[in-house]
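Researcher: Structure prediction, please.
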Amino acid sequence: RRSTGRRGRTTVSSGSGAAADIARILARPADRHEGSRTWTWTRAVEALRHREFRLLWFGQASTSMATWMDQVARGWLIYELTNSTVHLGLVRGVQAIPILFLSPLAGSFADRYSRKMQVLVAQVLDGLMYAILALLIIADEIQPWHVYATAFGMAVVQAFQLPARAAMVADAVPGAGARSRRRSGRGDRGESGPGG
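Model: Predicted structure follows.
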């Protein structure tokens, strides 16, 4: 049986069987909780209500698209310049080296220094390297070593940008840091681990 409750929402008040259970779940108001879990699909996008997180999310989406375009264009460019699959593989390897070796240091930087500044500096450096590469292509002065050098430089920047951007999520959603500390057992004191 359906009835209109407060706030004009339709609720299911009785019934039996699986169909009635599904109808009850689907008819629940958006603000109703069962235990500690909310029964709405909006939980998945709840963080987008916060301006800082929206900016971070859209920035990350844009950066990801630029990175994917760079990977395709860089591979195509090196293959056009050298006509060699070996160079195509080497340019990918050059991009992996800084991320592999600098990630521990970059994670420490993300914990110690301003994350927003790290991301901002990374974006500016990426933009400068893209501009240099574009000017070299337009001037028809591009050489394979230019592609390797900018690939390595962008990978260094990426190694520092990724941990800083990932750590910014807790800062962008109010209360997210406290919730994650409680879940990890560190309480609200902000301790960094066993050493304090």
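Model: The two ends are 57 Å apart (CA to CA).
Researcher: Thanks, that helps.
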